[in-house]
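$ fold --in a.seq
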Amino acid sequence: MKKIKKRILGAILCVMVLLVIIGRVDAAPFYFGDNEIYWPTWGNGTSDDTQDVIGVPNITADGGYGTVENGYVKDIHVTWIEGGHILIKEPGDVFIDVGADGEWDYILTHYTSEAGYEPYLHEWAKGTTNVTGLIYHYEFGIHDDHYYYTDNGDGTIDDNEIDWGAYSPGSIRESHPVWFKKPDGLDPIGTLTWTGDLSQSSGTIDFENFSFNPGQGVYVGNEPFYVGFTPKCANDTLYSEPTVPVPEPATMFLLGSGLFGLAALGRKKLK
């Protein structure tokens, strides 16, 4: 009787382990590159419209990657292979379009405070690690410039000054979204940390360690989604639908068969 109980207990433990494994099967990496020179509907009628990369950094050669777990985006990382410009240290914001319907739904910002939304004033944050950023859930059209800070080609982001003095003419992508201009009264749904320094010759910008208010997150479910990203000079942009690998049917069949077999074994021993 004791042997039977031990076997049943062992079978139950195996079932629990397999259930944990099955739960983890839903955690999948995703990868994205660059399918557009501009985000859709953008462009300024100049030679920029035909140039995928204007100077440095080159972020589209290697693209980016992240993780989706149980329908939630857990992290996003952007890589580059050509950097080195002293002014390109801060990243832009990450924009996520759930359902690929031309409407942004989530924004992962790199700035450290809701007050005033002036990320470019946080000079101390450039090139540092584990800087706190905020996450917003807000739907607006990809083409709607009311919710972006954009470079206008005259050394400014809207009416707020940035020192573009060290850039040669034509080394930035004028009039392209860079940061999220949040509406007044919009509260973040969570925080993140970002790490990276685009002035280096190569590396990765990491948006990770997401933390949310209860019951909230960057939820994409099983829908297609798009990711948009650019450095603050917008010289190169990412706009792409990530590729999310799915578990192979054979793997799921084996896991299901194992659970069925262990359950059958337990019933047999009880008789």
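$ fold --in b.seq
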Amino acid sequence: MKFPKRYLQTGAALFVSSLSAFAATEAAPVVKVLPPHQYNPFGTAGETSPELLAALNKMSETGILAGRRNSLHLFRWSGTPPKLTHLGLWGAKVNNELMSLTALMPDLAFVSLYETSVDDSGVETLLKLPSLRYLTFAPIERYEKAGFGAPQWSYPTIERNNERPRVTGKVLKACSQSKTLESIDLSDAKVDSKDLEALAACLKLGSVGLPNIIDQETVKHLQACRRLSNLVIGNREVSAQEIEQLAAWKGLRSLTIIRAHLSRETLLALSKLETVEALHLADCGLTDESLQSLKGSPKLTLLDLTRNEINGPGLMHVSKLNLKGLELTFNNLNDLTIKHLQQLGSLETLNISYNTGITNTGIQNGPLQSMTHLRKLELRGLKKVTDASCEDLGKLGFLTNLGIRETTTSVEAVAKLKAAMPKTDVFK
């Protein structure tokens, strides 16, 4: 099943949560800033103007940190000739002056800023970009887990910038003037419910991330934004009362709660969200016992439990939901508990990446091979899955997609695996 794109638009923190970390050096070398086509890991910058090159170098300089081999930034290029479409910057050195340089980058569609010194004036500058579609102001991701390491774009050692947030909900008035903006995440901002009145004029806005408590006024303004269907909240305790308030919003289709404390009552209240089709509960400390209180709702088809503490037995409660997609990245499944996945008979898409307790034994014992209803399976980061499992993986020919990146499988074994399952797209 192919899920609508809006279900996946939950900010860069979820977009890249299952990618591996950049390497860090033990010393603190002087970093030489190079032209973007020499260090950019997401495409080729190609020939560019001296002004643009100078602007990119200035941006990358803000991300030079002691102990890191590379500057902390994201430049992503697309098209021919290459055009800069994605920009990601981290830290207090990123300011309004730097944002003024985006005037040289008219093709920017995605801008993500994390714990910066940018304020409302800087946001207004960004909103003048003619192609801007997604704008994110979020806390720096600091997730790490023993035995896993930190995923890409997660930086546990970076000190918090306590002189923030500087962005406020007043920028929503400027957002209403944008003809292209589809998503804005203000998780790292100061927002009051009354600020959300401006949402009604944001004609293309489909997704919003908010830091404020969800009250009746908040829901009223969310409802008034006709195309809005995706909400991101978290970084605090989320109460059952807030969820009950959201139940009145009949246009809500996707809810993301990230880095939040969720009580039993809050989890039970989620079942009242009768219109929600996709539910993301990331890094919320959920356990197998927690899943007893997760009743879901009639339309729920995608459940994302990334970065929790689920061992496997609690999946018996999830099996009662009519799910088409389940994300269990960075949990605690192992060779013994992987068998509990077999109860999920309605699944078409399953992601169990970075459950490092799954080894060759778990693959060879056959629980995945019995799940013939699956179409997409992601096994990324299972370091103890080796060439010895390739014959058994070859029995998953009913899949359309199989992801085995960051497993310890050789090029030769993967070539044989692809030959054994010609109708499956094997991504290594």
